[in-house]
Write a structure and sequence with these properties.
mainly alpha, Cytochrome Bc1 Complex, Chain D, domain 2, 4 helices, 28% helix
Length: 133
């Protein structure tokens, strides 16, 4: 848990539309990618996220309805904060919660920035996101 870097400004939520781009983006950290290119999360390789998409991986659990299934109707509410923090932490350093996790440690390993993690958290928890429709 000490490897999780919580948001420096205390803001856990970004823009879910940008989060969708991060989730779909698969570029970054390969020998062909330019060092200045923005990395993607490549989330769809392992997860179903938007239930309307037909192509997704099955190594990780489905994330369709992620916020809805956890009762998050307002991710900024005090009641939702435990889910918001868990979601941030799981994306930042998945092994903090499960030492044998196959999920990449996106923040700890520098694959994603704090802003990109914020956007992914919003994608998963915002009631207006297609994930929760």
């Amino acid at each position: 848990m000490s490897a999780i870097k919580w948001p420096s400004d205390g803001k856990y939520l970004g823009d879910w539309k940008k989060g969708e781009k991060v989730a779909q983006g698969g570029r970054g950290l390969t020998w062909r990618d330019k060092i200045t290119a923005v990395n993607g999360g490549n989330c769809y390789n392992c997860h179903q996220i938007d239930p309307s998409f037909n192509s997704y991986g099955t190594l990780g659990p489905s994330l369709a309805g992620y916020g809805k299934l956890r009762g998050v109707t307002d991710p900024n509410s005090p009641a939702a904060q435990a889910v918001v923090k868990y979601t941030w932490g799981k994306i930042w350093n998945s092994r903090a919660y499960n030492a044998c996790s196959n999920m990449p440690r996106a923040g700890t390993n520098g694959v994603l920035t704090q802003d990109q993690v914020r956007d992914l958290v919003a994608l998963l928890l915002d009631p207006n996101s297609p994930v929760n429709k």
